[in-house]
Automatic annotation (TrEMBL):
Annotated coiled-coil segments of the chain: none
CDD domains: DOMON_CIL1_like
Organism in which the protein naturally occurs: Hevea brasiliensis (Para rubber tree)
Keywords noted in UniProt: Electron transport, Membrane, Signal, Transport
Full protein name: DOMON domain-containing protein
Amino acid sequence: MDITSKLTLLFGTLLSLVLFTSAQRCSNYTFPNNQVFSSCTDLPSLQAQLHWNYIASTRSIHLAYKANQAPAGWIAWAINPTGTGMVGSQALVAFQNSEGSMTAYPTPVTSSSPSMQTGTLSFKVSNISATYDNNEMTIFAIVGPLENGTTVNHVWQAGNSVSNGIPQAHALSGPNIQSMGRINFLA
């Protein structure tokens, strides 16, 4: 192995170590606005986390979805009440608008090329807002009541660009196609 190969391997190992040790686990995260969530999970792709409080009296979820993102990008988190993938999901999306403030809204994902415009979901969404701090975007919302119980299929996404106030298509490979799962808000 020549010196260039050794240096490349060493640099890659050090970079991986720095990224691994700098990633903050959801259980150690403190929100800047002092919001507290009783449960959280580190999602397995897109450097994302989901934090929540289940409100039993209303069968609703107070949530914060947080993901690493550049200022020009966008993030989304969704429940899919009818399937396991993106199509059919009921999404919350956020991005930094042209004035520099955050925009957050609900949008149904009805096809593999969704409009990503504001729309009505199959469940109620209230108190939706978003923040951008330290290269992280966070969506806050209350969703529910959940009609089909506390275990749901969910998907999350991130894209690199917004054009004319509309999030543009995300990558169709790697972590972007692995960003789905099942979650139990009582667990």
